[in-house]
Design goal:
The complex is a heterodimer of chains A (186) and B (136).
Chain A (H helix, E strand, L loop, with lengths): L2 H12 L4 H22 L2 H18 L10 H20 L19 H18 L2 H12 L4 H8 L3 H24 L6
Chain B lengths: L2 H11 L11 H8 L5 H14 L10 H10 L13 H22 L2 H15 L13
Helix pairs in contact in B: 5-6
């Protein structure tokens, strides 16, 4: 969605336009759900976060201030804070027990391979420290700009780039064995 | 663009210029022509793996559940102290029509009737605090 479309949608939400609900459900719900799913690693929790984010958006989509966040960035900020609340409640640490990577000896069927690949990327994401995971999910998967991502995480752009670099190095090391046939380097 | 900064960008954002900082994208793309580094090849490899990761799929009924949760939210009320009563009544009447429209759109007669009933009750000054509204 371009900036004008985002601005129009926010205005329609504030006006209580019922058609705006359709747009939120069609375009924003899958996007916010996938964001939360990659951060939290749990579909049930991600669905709760997505629902709460859309309800809050419907209740109080903000007027965009000059230089301020657009609707998409605002929704991601809400979703990120909800995810952080859930992570704090879980008392997540970097040392938590993680799902095993799929068995390399499984059958060659394409859907099994695709499922294994997806599990590997998600498992690798969950092995990242939370701040690295947030940075890489915001910037790579959600394609949020570096400036907006840094604002959401309340850090400088330089700090964000440091997190991204470390996240990418860690992901490469974690995924090397599964995707590239290289020995695991941790 | 200095080589150091170019390598920092590749390291942080990957090999796809679309993900680079907007202010440095054009200059960075020029540097691509001269960059033949292993770092760039590695970045492209990781990008491909991450880009191939399928979008997580939600439960099939999530859309309906969220729609219902949004339907049960009250339309933004005008603050009584700052608006005349006629404007509040007009706003609530609009909420009533909105509720009916939402119910028709989603074909959920029960939710629409409850939304409409709530709006009408508020207009008439009833206390809806104890009402059994649809769960979000």
């Amino acid at each position: 969605m371009n900036d004008d479309a985002e601005h129009d949608l926010a205005a329609r939400i504030r006006a209580g336009d019922p058609e705006a609900i359709h747009v939120l459900l069609d375009r924003k719900l899958p996007r916010i759900f996938s964001f939360a799913r990659r951060i939290l690693g749990d579909s049930g929790d991600a669905e709760d976060v997505a629902q709460e984010t859309l309800v809050r958006t419907w209740q109080r989509a903000p007027d965009r201030e000059p230089g301020g966040p657009g609707l998409d960035a605002w929704m991601h900020k809400v979703a990120l804070n909800l995810c952080l609340d859930r992570l704090r409640r879980r008392r997540e640490t970097f040392l938590e027990v993680l799902p095993d990577l799929p068995d390399e000896g499984a059958g060659p069927a394409a859907n099994l391979e695709a499922a294994a690949d997806a599990q590997s990327v998600q498992a690798a994401l969950l092995r990242l420290p939370p701040r690295q995971r947030q940075a890489i999910v915001l910037c790579h998967f959600q394609e949020i700009s570096n400036i907006e991502a840094a604002e959401m995480m309340e850090i400088s752009v330089e700090a964000l780039e440091s997190l991204l670099s470390r996240a990418r190095r860690s992901l490469r090391a974690l995924l090397a064995a599964h995707f590239l046939g290289e020995p695991v380097r941790e | 663009m200095e080589r150091t900064r170019f390598e920092q960008i590749i390291d942080a954002y990957g090999a796809n210029p679309e993900r680079w900082p907007a202010a440095e994208r054009n200059e960075g793309e020029l540097s691509l022509n001269f960059a033949a580094s292993a770092a760039l090849a590695e970045a492209r490899q990781l990008d491909a793996i991450l880009d191939a990761d399928p979008l997580p799929l939600a439960a099939t009924d999530l859309r309906e559940r969220v729609a219902l949760a949004m339907q049960t939210q009250p339309v933004r009320m005008l603050r009584a102290s700052s608006r005349p009563r006629w404007a509040m009544v007009a706003g609530l009447a609009a909420a009533c029509v909105c509720g009916i429209s939402i119910g028709m759109l989603f074909g959920r007669d029960l939710a629409a009737r409850q939304y409409e009933a709530t709006a009408l009750a508020v207009i008439e000054g009833d206390d809806v605090a104890g009402w059994n509204l649809p769960a979000p």
